[in-house]
Amino acid sequence: MKSSDGVTAEIVVQHVRGLIERGELRPGDRLPAERELAVQLGVSRPSVRAGLRSLSAIGVLQTRHGAGTFITDGPPTLGSEPLSFLAALHGFTRDEMFEARRALEVGVAGLAAERANDEQIATIAEEITGMFAALDDPQTFLIHDIRFHRSVAEASGNPILASLVEMVSALFYEQRRKTAQHGRDLKESAHLHRAIYHAIRAHDPKRASAAMNEHLSVAQQAQALESPFRDGRTAPFDAPAALAGVNGTGMPSINGTNGTSMVAAAPSNGSVGASVHGPAARRPIRQAARLLPTPLR
Fold first, then answer.
1. Phi/psi of residue 265, nearest 5 degrees
2. Residues with Cβ < 8 Å from 86, sequence gap 6 or more?
3. Residue 228 resides in a domain
4. Which of 5, 190, 258, 296 is most buried (CB neighbours < 10 A)?
5. Cβ neighbours, 10 Å, residue 1
6. Do the beta carbons of residue 200 and residue 113 sit within 8 Å?
7. Average pLDDT over residues 79-87
8. Which of the listed residues 53, 71, 89 is the one where a domain comes to its end?
């Protein structure tokens, strides 16, 4: 892209941002056609396309074939690439990863217990069912494990925390899939996850937080015995895998690209079945930062 195209593409980005901030565009709204935007802003259609691509890459827009371009109506998603780069350059220890997860997820579990609705509880139950069905398949178990934690974060009702858990879990999956086949007791792990689910279903925040903390502590100890790196280092990142993130490994997301729930409302007794969905694209935080409001001074 020529530098002039980059400048005019930024005009498109800022225009859409302004419409969103003023409430003129809301989740699910359709954008004007490319030609109309080009005339409104006095830029070329290639510049409009470039700007819209940037917004799509960070999850603000989605294109529906034959229907047009729409404001995404699903939850926000932060990309894992910056974190993956840090891991590739400097390495993260296993203990650092679990420390970060505890700082995020113990509180998130408590919030989920306070706020989860029936549909969200059913989604969490589905992942528990999937774990118990995959006790002999560590890779499939891992997918349900990651989905479980993302579902709990989604049920917290805080989109910032949900996005952070999404980002960290993408990196965790990229590391964990390399050692998952060495898992020693998946049944114990499934029971620990079920304890979290039961606490959330009972709307007991203290018990949910305690159960999450216990699960993460047990998982940290167990995985220290699985990895060939006994000093607590994670398995090395290779650049293509780090850049591909979860998308490059087939890791499914909680929601589809249109933000719809992975499962329809279902009983919260754990009887719902497991399902597999397509991967979610990882999106750069650096680009997303350009859409954030200017801080007050």
1. -55, 135
2. 92
3. yes
4. 190
5. 11
6. yes
7. 63
8. 71
What gap in Å lies between CA 17 and CA 9, rounded to an integer?
13
> Is residue 143 one of the residues assigned to a domain?
yes
Q: Over the stretch 33-69, which tens digit does the pLDDT of each residue have?
A: 999 999 999 999 999 998 898 887 667 888 888 889 9
pLDDT bracket for residue 131 (50, 70, 90): very high
103 plus 181 within the same structural domain:
yes
Is residue 65 domain-shared with residue 212, that is, in the same domain? no
Domain that holds residue 190: 81-283
Q: How confident is the model at residue 265, as a pLDDT?
A: 33
Instruction: Output the pLDDT for position 242.
Output: 36
Ramachandran class of 232: left when φ > 0, alpha when ψ lies in -120 to 50, beta otherwise: left
Total of domains in the chain = 2
Same domain assignment for residues 60 and 105 = no
Q: Which amino acid is at 168?
A: V
Mean pLDDT of the chain, nearest integer = 76
- In this structure, what CATH number is given to the domain that contains residue 204? 1.20.120.530
CA distance 281 to 248: 9
**Which helix (H) or strand (E) segment is 15 a member of?**
helix 3-21
**SS3 category, 93:** strand
Which residue, 149, 155, 158, is CA-closest to 215?
149
d(CA 184, CA 233): 19
